[in-house]
Each structure stands twice: as C-alpha cells, then as structure tokens.
Amino acid sequence: GLGTAIIKLIPDYRQEGPIALDRLLSTAVVIVLAAGCVVSAVFFLAADSLAAIYAVPEFSVLLRVSALLVAFDGLLNLGVAVVQGFQRVKELAVIGLYAKAATVPVIFGMTLAWGLLGAVIAGTVAMALNLAIYNRSVRLILAGEQIRVSLRHFDRRAAFRMLRVALPLFAAFLVLRPALLFQSSFLALELGYADLGLFRVAHSLYRMVLFLPAALSVPLLPAISEIYFAYPRDR
Fold first, then answer.
1. Secondary structure (3-state) at 210
2. Would you give the distance in Å from CA 193 to the centre of its chain?
3. CA distance from start to end of the chain
4. What's this model's pTM, rounded to 2 decimal places?
5. Whole-Å CA distances, 14 to 2, 11, 82
6. What is the DSSP letter of 232?
7. For 189-231, what is each residue's pLDDT tens digit?
8. Long-range contacts at 64-67 (CB < 8 A, ≥ 24 apart)
C-alpha cells in the first residue's frame, strides 16, 4: 500500500515545495529498504522449513533466489508510484513498453534454457532491468523538481502520513494473501501441482480481461488527489 500512499500524497507535498517532497520520498525509500531487507532475510532463512512443508526440496533454492526480489520489487513499485504521482502518464506508458521489451526476451530465454530455475532467475534479472529503466526516469523527474533524496532525510511526520494511508491497504493484504496462499497450498497438496498449474493459468487469463480498469486507475488516482488537495477541505 505504500505506492498508493505516495501517489496520493505527492500532490499535497508538492504544494509545500521541493524540501517537503524531499522528506516524503526519502522517508519512503528508507521504509522500503528497511522492510525489504527484513522480509528478504526472513524468507532466505526460512527457505528450508518452507520447502519441508511442501515436500519439495528444490523449493528452498527457488525461494532463496526469489528472496532477492523483495527489495527490488519494493523499490520498483516506489519508482512507478513517483512517476505516476507526478502525472507523467505518457512517460509511464513509454517506460512500461521499454521495460517489457527488455525483460520479455530474458524471461523466454532463461526459462527455455534452464526450466523452472531459469524462470526464477529470469524474474530477478527482469526486476533489476525494470528497476534500472524506471530509476533513470525517476532521477530526471527529481532533478526537474529540484529534489535530492537521501537516506538521512527521514521524516517522522511523512512516515506517519504514509502509513496512515497504507495500513488499511496492508490490513486487506493480510486478510487476502493468507487466503490465497491457503488456496494454492491446498490445491498443490491435495490435488497435485499439475492441477495447481492449470488453475494458475486460468487465473492469469482471467486477469488479462481486467486491463481496462487497471489502465484507467493510472491517471485517475493522482488527478483526483491533486483536485482534492487544491480545494479547501470544507468544500
């Protein structure tokens, strides 16, 4: 939920000037890095125990590789939120095309070459490529707005405001994700991994038809936030 909080708060902090935006984004980077490192370490250390639960020894290797994705994924989502929060919608679309053009060959090549392990490694490489592509655009935006993000610029007030927006989304995540994990685990252990694979393919196809609402939400959220903060609160 932190990305949504950033998108919502950028218009408000933008009215206060570059220093306020600097505090907001610096605080977000600190939170993402701290949480990402902790979660990555926990998953890395718990890989063998989780593999034992699913009775698949190879799962521990895959999980340890995937643990590297957590911090990358958090920073990538933060970069996307920054571009979206400043309403660079066309730029966000172009960046997305570049990112997909760079990562799709990596995913196909590594998956065909090394199978399941290649798919997991490809996910890590693709995440790093996406992060590098979005990082360039974010740096240009920050330079244009005269913002200098630093880990030393952590601000408690900005952290509290971000978490106040993000925590309800995080609470929904805590309810939904364990349910989805139980669903996948039940299908894998009771029906088999082949049936679970078929279910995941069907679920992916179902999500493809939801591209229109997802696309509309990209420009709407920052635009509505800007309108909200532009008018007095009593209206």
1. coil
2. 27
3. 27
4. 0.73
5. 18, 5, 12
6. -
7. 888 888 888 888 887 777 777 766 666 666 666 667 666 666 6
8. 65/117, 65/120, 65/121, 65/124, 66/120, 66/123, 66/124, 67/40, 67/41, 67/43
